[in-house]
Amino acid sequence: MIAPPLTAFLIVAALLFAIGLYAILAQRTAVMVLMGIECILNAVGLNLIAFWRFTAPGDYSGQIFAIIIVTVGAIEMALGLAIMMLLYRNRRTVQVDDYTELKG
Amino acid sequence: MTALALVPLAPFVAALLILAFGNRLPARGGWLAVLGTLIAAIALPFFHDAKIDAGIEWFTLGPWHFTLSLHLDRLSWWVATVVAWVTLAVNFYAVRYMQTENGRVRFHAWMAFFAASMLTLVLAGSLLLLFLAWEGVSLASFALIAQRHEESDARRAALKALLMTRFGDFGLLLGWLLALHFIGTTDIAALLGAVHAGRLPQGVPLLLAMLFLAAAVGKSAQLPLTAWLPDAMAGPTPVSALIHSATMVAAGVYLVTRLFPLFAAAPPALDVVLWIGGITAVFAALAATAQADLKRILAWSTVSQLGEMFIALGLRAPIAATFHLTTHAVFKACLFLGAGVVERATNSHELDRLGGLYRRLPWATAAFIAAALALSGLPPFSGYWSEERILEAAVAAHTGWAIVLLVLIALAGIYIGRAAMATFGPWREMRNDDASRKPWIMLVPTLALAIAALALGGSLKNPVSHVLLFAESSAPPAWWWQAGAIVASVAGLAFGAWRTRRGPVPAFGGWAGVLGTSVQRIADAAARTGDSLGAASRTLEHVLDRLAQAVVAAAWSLARGARTAEDRGLSVGNDRLAWALGAAGARLRPLESGKVFLYTAGVFGWTLLAGIVITLIVWWI
Amino acid sequence: MIAPVVEWIAFAVFAFIAVAGALGMTTTMSMFRSGIFLMASFIGVAGLFILLLADLIALLQVMMYIGGMLVMILFMLLFSHDPGGAMMSTHMTLKGPERWFSLGLARKQAHENDPHAGHGDGMSMEGMSMYTAIKRPAVILAALTGVLLIALLIWRPHWAVVHTLPDQDSPARIGELLMGKYMLAFEGAGLMILLGIFGAVLMQRPAKYPDSSERDTLQAAIDEPPPPVESDALEPEVLDLREDDER
Fold first, then answer.
1. Paired residues of B67 in beta bridges
2. Residues in chain B closer than 8 A to C151 (CB atoms)
3. Mean pLDDT over each residue of chain B, to the nearest integer
4. Which residue of B604, B609, B613, B614 is the best one to mutate when testing the C interface, meaning the one whose CB has the most C CBs within 10 A?
5. Interface of C with B (CB under 8 A)
6. Over the stretch B61-102, which tens digit does the pLDDT of each residue have?
7. CB contact A90 to B (< 8 Å)
8. Coil, helix or strand at residue B17
9. Residues contacting B334, CB < 8 A, separation 6+
């Protein structure tokens, strides 16, 4: 018996991606949408690390990418919080489907 | 532009200023008109040796160049100077003459405008500018004849003058258009150059000459377009003096002189000029002997003298014509101004009501007599010298024409002797004596012109040949011709004066007067024929009106039908279409709901679809 | 080396935690629980990272996501008007994972007193639902995406797998890379964080915005229909040409 192969990790990442996508589409609250995005970023990071581990373990560049993704996630969260508070101050709501001023 | 433009512009600006501020100026702007003319008159002598050809190209139309230019040579300088100084004298005179009349602002503005137009006409270097100025003087003449527009005579005379000269103006218009067609520019120098070089097709110079001759005939009141000039005496006397004797009517003569190379290239046209001038001169002189109105005598006399100038031109003696134009302008203006003094003093210019004025108006009498002697051709007065030049040409050409000229001199003596004697002579006193006003200021220009009429001929006799550079044979006629002319003049004067001893009867009986009236009758008959034609055309107009109305009605019913169709059909269809589009838009609207999750779903749905399709394609392969 | 069996067991546990945590995050009615479930998911992923011999990333995962971001997320929850999800789970009929992940949230009493209890799902309670209008299409879309990805993974697992183990001292290698080859990217990321902080701070500064009443009047002015066209008559006055007849 061999250790869990690359495909197993990738399947987990795919599941995380699908769940995150569902969260983005289905949740009304901006916080929940952000959480869905985090979920997807996690899936991407898992993908990167898995590929690094199984195809290029000698080159640590894959981990660098993962670090940068974490960075992007942190910035996204901070800005998301700021935008949300701003919207809340102006509109007294955090439901994304209430922000419909651009509708045609 | 050149400084020469100042000459016509000064009176033009004066005219504009008079129109704008005339009511607030002394003498209603009369002095401003004098000033404008004075500037032109003083400026002109400075150009005496100049040869200026300055102009601009107004616009170009295909191969045709429309130019506006001023041209100054000896001839135009000469004539312009004469015009400017005579105009100055008359304008000065008019300030006082018009003092008791209405519409003085209008009058002075038109007088200044006339001066500007006339100077432009004389100085024009392009046919286009000449034509514009030609129409300008026509307009001024029309307006000034109708100055006393309360009188129906004046109105009718103004209309008559305008319409009759219009016949000739068509000739000028067609002439310059034709010249433009053949030489591609409206420049006179170019036209004369083309004529000189023989570049024009066969017959074209003759055609052009005839067209320009028509204009000259109309403007100078030669037969058959004579009838308007005697009627034009309905205008104020300064107008008669300036426009209808000294300057404007001489424009016809000037036109022919200006284009003399063209006429010289078309000998038949010169023959026509000769014959028209001869017939008109004799005819008008005879008519003048029978008139009962001082101003009408002078008017017919003007026609006759212009005829003499035409004779001179026809005899290929443009210097003689120009010389006579000069002297005639001076002495005829003086005669009219004298008549104006008489008119102002007595309120009349009917010979019946005048007489014995030499005691009450001695200076005016002296001036009038001096000018009359000049007209009759007695030495040393100016008329003698210019008529001698014409006689010289006539003798050189044909003895018959010399005899005609002697007859004309005699006739001139007769009618002017009769007029002078009946007005001022001691035969009888005036019947109604209300001549109390003594308009001294009016005498100043009159006497100045009289002195000029006395002195000008002798002093200009030799210079004129040097100034005007026309090739002209200059052999003095034999002594008996000169003696004959003097004898004819003296005899005419004596006969004319003698005939008035028992009142101002016609010199040769009434038949001569009938000549004059007949010409006017013919013109009137032509006018009446035209009028009845116009009346007939009114019926035609009615028919056309009906037709037009029918067309309009048809168009309206068509429009109404179209509107009905639109209301019932097209507009309903359009409404349906708009409604359908709106409904479709409403259906599509949720797609642009502004909801973030829908956009996200669109992006990912599309990505998923693409992924599935690509997968299937790859799998298939 | 640990035995493959142990590795499989560890993988199964961590994978379950990661996936189930993510599922719970998105299905529970309580946003607070969502945050906790997301944390569990992060921990599962961190375990998978360790399994993949990426210790530094696992450490980073725990410190950054769990220590930093979840705090922010919990702050944000404070702005929502039902972070605990009690109202939501009381008023809705829940099925499947939603029911499971929301156990114990509902208040029995409120449920009985509410005449609308058990009436429809989230779609019918527009103002209160946690979900957008496209919940069901979203389920299908997400499921299809997952199925497609997994199908592709199983169908074509042709990656050049290298059967060597990475260096044990990976953090030191990563540090060298960050300070050497990826210096620019590293600095860029740092700059990005700085800009993000600036942006967040700037956005929170008080600024002038039209307050709601003024906005309403402006909107009313925009929505007001233009006045109707009063007349479009084109017919000009008819010229009377007959006056000449009397002449």
1. B57
2. 615
3. 84
4. B604
5. 132-134, 137-138, 141, 144-145, 148, 151-152, 155, 238-239, 241-242, 244-245, 247
6. 888 888 888 888 888 888 898 899 999 989 888 888 888 888
7. no
8. helix
9. B367, B368, B370, B371, B446, B449, B450, B452, B453
Q: How many helices, marked H, and strands, marked E, lie in chain C?
A: 11, 0
Q: Which of B195, B179, B173, B188 is nearest to B64 (CA)?
A: B179
Cβ atoms within 10 Å, residue B178: 16
The rounded distance, in Å, linking the Cα atoms of C58 and C43 is: 9
Chain B to chain C, count of Cβ pairs less than 8 Å apart? 36
How many CB atoms are closer than 10 A to CB B583? 10
Say if CB B250 and CB B179 are below 8 A apart: no
Could you write out the three-class secondary structure of B320-383? HHHHHHHHHHHHHHHHHHHHHHHHHHHCCCEHHHCCCCCCCCHHHHHHHHHHHHHHHCCCCCHH
The predicted-structure confidence for C162-214, as pLDDT tens digits, reads as follows: 888 877 777 888 888 888 888 998 899 889 989 988 888 888 776 555 566 66
Q: Do B594 and A24 make contact, defined as CB atoms within 8 angstroms? A: no
pLDDT of C15 over the 90 cut: yes
CB nearest B604 (choices: A21, A99, A104): A21
**pLDDT of B400-429, one tens digit each?**
888 888 888 888 888 888 888 888 877 666
Chain C: closest CA distance from residue B588 (Å): 17
Pairwise CA distance, residues B280 & B273, whole Å: 10
* Gap from B198 CA to chain C (nearest CA, Å): 56
Q: Tell me: pLDDT of C72 over 50.
A: yes
| Residue in chain A lying closest to B585 (CA) | A104
Task: Give the DSSP H/E element, type plus range, for residue B101.
Answer: none
- Complex ipTM: 0.88
Is B356 or B6 the better-scoring residue by pLDDT?
A: B6
Smallest CA-to-CA distance from C191 within A72, B43, A59 is with A72
Give chain B's length.
Answer: 621
Of the pLDDT bands very low, low, confident and very high (cuts 50, 70, 90), residue C124 is: very low
- Per-residue model confidence as pLDDT tens digits over A7-45: 899 999 999 999 999 999 888 888 888 889 989 999 999
Interchain contact, C155 vs B619, CB within 8 Å: yes
